[in-house]
Amino acid sequence: MLPNGSRPCFDCWPTRIILRGLTRRDSGIDVVRVQDVGLSGADDPTVLAWAAEAGRVLITHDVNTVTRFAYERVKAGRAMPGVFEVPHNVTVGQAIEDILLLIRCSSKDQWEGQVCYLPL
Q: What is the pLDDT of residues 70-112, one digit of tens each?
């Protein structure tokens, strides 16, 4: 991982297979799940606030509500280090490849204020 690369946080969705794939490809990857930091079951604004404070882009399947709250943070002038939406039709392999690309090839602040969709 690049020293200044993006550091993702996964929202609560079935990520075990994706996380296992990521760590098999790069054992030094710096990634957390919301449940790892005590936010399991937290609402979207709380998760986004934590991600902003921790400087982590949020990777989520929640295309229904996270986007709205992310843009509300931006509109209010609050930090929002980026959200990556992973639609349910993206394959596990494609998700792993795109997340690795995100981590390895982007700078820490590159996604500030943006909502992006996988596949890239």
A: 999 999 999 998 999 988 889 999 999 999 998 888 887 899 9
43-69 average pLDDT score: 92
C-alpha closest to that of 115 among 77, 49, 53, 62: 62
- Sequence-distant (≥ 6) Cβ neighbours of residue 70 within 8 angstroms: 48, 58, 80, 83, 115
Task: Classify domain 8-117 at the CATH topology level.
Answer: Rossmann fold (3.40.50)
Domain ranges of the chain: 8-117
| Contact predicate 11/60, CB 8 Å | yes
